Amino acid sequence: MTVVSQHISSRHHRPIPAEEQKLYDHLLYWIELESPQEMLHRFRALFIDGVGYPDTEIVAALRAVVNSKLATEDFRYVLNRCCHILINRWQSRLPTQAAIPELINLFETPPNTTTVAAMHLPSVRRHHQLIRQFKATEQYHTLHRLAQVLTEAEAANPERPLGTLIRRYPYLYGHCLLSEDSTHEQQCTVRQIQSSMQRQFEIHLAHYVTYQTRCSQVGSTARSAAQTTIRPIRNPTLLDDQELNLALRYYTGKVDGYRTHRDLALNLLNQGGQPQSFAAFKDDLYDYITAAVDPAYGKRKFNQQLHHHLRSTLPENNAQMLNDFLLVRTCNQLLGFLIVDSPQRANHYVFVDLVTNLGAVVTTGLLLKVVLLCRKVIPGLERRLSILFNHYESHQREAVQWLVQSLENTNLALTTNFGAINLTSLPK
Q1: Any idea where the domains of the chain sit in the sequence?
Q2: If we measure between CA atoms, which residue out of 90, 103, 83 comes closest to residue 32?
């Protein structure tokens, strides 16, 4: 366990200092009585301005937190929790959800300097310094992403940062909108948002598929007339219509002429109906993955790299029979090989090379093949893609179009294979 994780663990289990609890109780009390705009004014005066707040007892509690020897490390957790007290309450009611981005945007505004004398007090200067430092923390980044999720962004603008697209990818929320100190209530709030946004995407995609099916059922000579009578449904992705239809067929249709990706996964897991050794499974897994890779590309380097990776995966267990533990570990490590190894190194040259040479549809198909073998590693897939999203979130979308294409295709692959709506009735 690292020093950081030890500190986080101790925060979750230690008693909350009285000064912190006063801040939490104060916000919990007033949020029941005041409108979002009144609470935003209150929050700004207390935390952003740091001066002029009328409740002297709460000001003293905040000063104690700010002046603590542990403030450099602890203040971000206190402030994050204060933010989430408001967020958790407002998220539960649709009319108040719009206040959440306003709350987070307060950190982009300079403090009110009307009380000039107070601004020079050491405690106030220290307060403002900690607020500036907060904006460089993972806690603030998760809050900022949450604001993006709850704000309608102009998806067509390629010059906007990649981070403004987070709203489109609910499968990233668990890793992009939560930090290591997130409370149970914060996790529940994110899960609610995730469920709502995923449901919206599934409904929009189902409507689009239905629209495409109806248009395809008319003769080609009557298609133009039919499209004027059938209410058009907007493509819910950032792919064009042809790319979207190709991706949907690839993730739900028969990829080898008579079997779907799901069929192929079940076939590998049930090889001959007999138990197989871990070594034999890895050999079959190699064939299962490379079958979807263009032979010319695979022979250059990828197949050899994959073979070496699988041979190096838990070799001490080769003689054992395949079991759930080995399956989960192998699939999770395979996702690391295909996407990114760790947040610290963020090596993803294999993934970039795959997307560049095979395209986002087929590359995402490789990831789908892995999670269909073991759906327990879906969180691992989401975590690794969130590493790439966080790594590139400040880049312009057009500069990382390969990643946008991959994220869009992953959304489709997961939705069509693990979502709540049947999307298999596609036009031929």
Answers
A1: 12-136, 196-418
A2: 90
